[in-house]
């Protein structure tokens, strides 16, 4: 990039239209002077004009020369561009998504809403409804575009917008160190949250206790009986009862900390009372739970997918140049023919690859566990056993195919 | 497990999607220069000729000093016109160069990052998504949304609203069955279009011809013949099929049952013309023919998709991912936004299993890591030796679980 930057700086310095503008001005000046001469002495008209021919010609020669410089500069920059940023062909021949513009529009609208860009989203929704996109059928792809129709209108955008605006309000309050709206939301949804195995409500209440405990010097709240360790104690009495069943141990720890309050730093409870990352942590948990209850991923799927796409593209392009020769299209097959490495944050499912067939298991070819605890894909099991007693490929154990059980990872 | 996880950032290959970002201002700079060059040549030769002719006329005394003055005035007017045009080009030049600076700076930021885990990478990648979104919106003619988004994100220098708005205007006029705007555009880019052997202008002229014939009015039919002679026949070697169709068309008025000719009268041709124009426009400016978002997404959807994402097993999609939190985030492909869209792309290839260690199967056949089960059950306040299914909430005795070995 540096080399390109230097080349661009050269272009801006030496190869602009500024000089040719100045030289055009000079021609204008000459014409004006000639005009003045003729006005003052009409008899000089023919001699003035005759004398004018050469200067005008060389004036334009100068302008052309200026332009040649710009042209040369542009060519040099173009060369630098090709060298530092060589053109790489994009896989555009086969656009599997062109047949689903309505689904893409829906994904974009939802992305804008979840990012809190409510005004952009509403502009987009009205534009997209006014000019609905035209699906372009793609060869070789089952085409569900008829079903997609009107997806944008069926997207309950107002409802979704209200939900997300509620989420942003609560997050905003969390940023201002106010837990109450978040706690209230968690309490209202406690049943659902519990089903997910989430402790959000307790985590939030715990932080509220700790926050009060740390007192006015840290939390900046009024210095009265509702603050400080007395305030925390009162809070615990009022609110921790409902958590006793599930979080007794934690609650004991929290109240025991009261004893150490004068010397918290050296106490075993120090970590519980360190709020350095606690606020960010509860904000992240809150966002995750909030989105999950809507059936949505915590991070924008569009963001993750576009980022994963940029990471995957170099590998896929290398592959595309190979399959082109073989005249097959990777986009129409069940499984990508090549493995793509992604950051660990982009792995969401457990993946089981059958050690015998080297294939990923699917609904139709699920993982099967033999009595010895080893797992193979169903199709491999059928091939190994041929219906009768067989030996596990990974241990001496022998079993019947019917003893194997399908597992859910 | 190591080979399908990476945080390596290879900048040179990572910037595949960002080629138009740098290329487009360059193409526009070149186009701008050509306009300036053309104007200088044209006005230059006109003024030089005028000076010479005026001088000659004056020498042979065939024109009076007044006439000479009048000629000089018109030369001055021409020169001032040239100056105005050059000034406009120069302004555009400055804007494009400034834009290139911002864009190279933006790309250079990526080179300051060490890996994909760099917090700055996330920010950069978010800006990239915004750029891809603006590109998508503009290609669909959603001008207001595109402007609003780029303004809100402060990325005006990194997107090409103006270029696409011009393109959309012409495309829209074709959809509304008007050829004039597109023909003017062809005239502006005559040289380049000839170089790339574009068929666009011919097709526009053909459509004009069809519209003349469609009227079935005497005078228009006569006009159509002249039109065909002037604009279509010269291309009979290059586009024999179309020229032949055009010649035959006079014998088949609209409403004809001859399929080959009834098709020619179809309004669908306007859509085809609009698309042909868009393609030609994009090729000319080295822009990809499809939205960059499509390219990024189809690669990304496949890289992320697993067989579980469209599995019929209830909620098997919600599988714990990181050991630091018990509850999980919904997978982006399982999430409503992308689930239907991902249905027709292939799923990612994996050559090795990727599961947690120390797995056990519950009596309901669901498999979890022992440690996670225990932690979850403890937090759920279960008695010792009892465990709770993370997804279904069912409670079992630990002794009823079975160890699972995945190699
Ligand atoms: Zn075994
Ligand atoms: Zn999934």
UniProtKB/TrEMBL annotation, chain A:
* Gene3D superfamilies the record matches: Zinc/RING finger domain, C3HC4 (zinc finger) (3.30.40.10)
Domain named CTLH: which ranges?
163-210
State any GO BP term from the record: proteasome-mediated ubiquitin-dependent protein catabolic process
Keyword annotations: Cytoplasm, Metal-binding, Zinc, Zinc-finger
Q: Which SUPFAM superfamilies match?
A: RING/U-box (SSF57850)
From which residue to which do the RING-Gid-type zinc fingers run? Answer: 354-395
- Highest taxon of the lineage: Eukaryota
For the RING-Gid-type domain, which residue ranges apply?
Answer: 354-395
In alphabetical order, the GO MF annotations are: ubiquitin protein ligase activity; zinc ion binding
GO-annotated cellular components: cytoplasm; GID complex; nucleus
Which InterPro entries does the UniProt record give? CRA_dom (IPR013144), CTLH/CRA (IPR024964), CTLH_C (IPR006595), Fyv10_fam (IPR045098), LisH (IPR006594), Rmd5_dRing (IPR037683), ZF_RING_GID (IPR044063), Znf-RING_euk (IPR027370)
Q: What CDD domains does this protein map onto?
A: dRING_Rmd5p-like (cd16652)
Q: Provide the family line.
A: Belongs to the RMD5/GID2 family.
Mind telling me what this protein is named?
Answer: GID complex catalytic subunit 2
Species name for this entry? Hymenoscyphus albidus
Automatic annotation (TrEMBL), chain B:
User: PROSITE patterns recorded for this chain?
Assistant: CTLH, LISH, ZF_RING_GID
InterPro entries in UniProt: CRA_dom (IPR013144), CTLH/CRA (IPR024964), CTLH_C (IPR006595), Fyv10_fam (IPR045098), LisH (IPR006594), ZF_RING_GID (IPR044063)
Q: Which GO terms describe its cellular component?
A: cytoplasm; GID complex; nucleus
> Pfam families recorded for this chain?
CTLH
The alphabetical list of record keywords is: Coiled coil, Cytoplasm, Metal-binding, Zinc, Zinc-finger
Compartments, record wording: Cytoplasm
Q: What would be an example GO MF term here?
A: ubiquitin protein ligase activity
Identify this protein by name.
Negative regulation of gluconeogenesis
The record lists the lineage as:
Eukaryota, Fungi, Dikarya, Ascomycota, Pezizomycotina
